[in-house]
Design goal:
Layout lengths: L4 H27 L3 H25 L4 H24 L3 H30 L6 H5 L1
Helix pairs in contact: 1-2, 2-3, 3-4
């Protein structure tokens, strides 16, 4: 099983994101108190978990890694909306960040989907190779 270089680069980025998510959850849990901080901690744990699951799935080239990637994107979106609600930042910031994330993650998701489909459906051999 051959893993494309682009998938390897993406999975290394997800491993790094998982590490940062778990570190964020650890420090947020032990340094702050209050409901919002515990919800941020929970969001960081989900962020780290789905990033790690995506990295492992891409490493093994499993078809479920695409669903894990989409789950990670949903967690990012939920965390963003929650942070927007708590911090009360201008809505322009929210829409700018959403546009940036869409511009980055949409092509990444299509690339992951394409690579996983070609791995699960290898090209058929030509009829000339069967005649020999």
């Amino acid at each position: 099983m051959h893993r494309p270089v682009g998938i390897t680069i993406i999975l290394v980025c997800f491993l790094f994101a998982a590490f940062l998510g778990f570190i964020h959850a650890f420090f947020n849990f032990f340094n702050r108190t209050g409901l919002f901080y515990y919800l941020f901690t929970l969001g960081a744990l989900f962020y780290g978990f789905f990033a790690l699951a995506t990295a492992v799935g891409l490493w093994k080239m499993k078809s479920w890694s695409y669903m894990s990637f989409l789950s990670w994107c949903a967690v990012v979106l939920i965390n963003l909306i929650f942070f927007q609600y708590v911090a009360r930042l201008p809505m322009l910031n929210l829409f700018a960040f959403l546009a940036m994330m869409f511009a980055i993650l949409f092509p990444v998701g299509r690339y992951i989907s394409k690579c996983l489909k070609t791995q699960s459906n290898p090209p058929l051999q030509s009829d000339a190779s069967h005649r020999r």
